[in-house]
Here is the input.
Amino acid sequence: MFGRKRRIEIKTPAQFAMMREAGLVVARTLELLRSETRPGITTLDLDVVARESLALEGATSSFLGYHGFPAVVCLSVNDEVVHGIPGDRRLRDGDILSIDFGAIVEGWHGDAALTVAVGEIDGADALLSEVTEQSLWAGIAATFAGARLSDIGHAVETSVLARGEYGIIEEYVGHGIGSAMHMDPSVPNYGEPGHGPVLEVGMALAIEPMVVRGLRHVHTLDDGWTVVTDDGSRACHWEHTVAITADGPWVLTALDGGAARLGNHAPGTSDLPD
Ligand code: MG
Here is the structure.
């Protein structure tokens, strides 16, 4: 799958700085959406919150109009894995909600996702979300110059399978990101290590594991967007946009640049070098 040689966009430090601005818009908006998520609110209400945040930030949406997508945020509930369309669905106590959001600043994109609890949730759902988030950070820790692309997916998969019998979605994967939301290369959440392009300083990747409690098989609903599990099992989705710097991975869509999760040597601790 990595056989064809494709060019991966290399960013300058100044371009990473713009991507950081977009990433911070995404991080702040996701925090806002997390805080607004509660039983009784509709998914359309949350799309309005996200639109207002974009306007306040002076940023534009990566998602609105993308292949005709009608909203600025993807909101996927319970057995919905990704690409849920905001609408009049009212969130209920015990639901889990995956929130995927992307923003553009000066032509540069940031993209991230998280799964949040609606009220009190089942312990197995809370664990699924923790497992998924942890696998994301395992993938991020494998994202550094000199590593191979498939090392990331291997790290994600190893992290998930160490925690139990979970399904990892294969049809939807991470991606290169920068002057467009979806760019080469694809970043699967599984696979053997040591394959694919060598990662270089200046590359940026969106890493986004989608993990389910049941089997990994999915299909798309009649709306043409919403991806659900075939067996109805619940799904979680966590994502960050990661810049590869000489000092390691810089998590552009984390408020602290990834410092807390990656340790004191993360580039985010000193923010931009210059
Ligand atoms: Mg993405």
Summary: The CA atoms of residues 56 and 67 lie 25 Å apart. Confidence is low (pLDDT under 50) at residues 268-274. The pocket of magnesium ion is lined by residues 111, 175, 206, 208, 239 (CB under 6 Å).
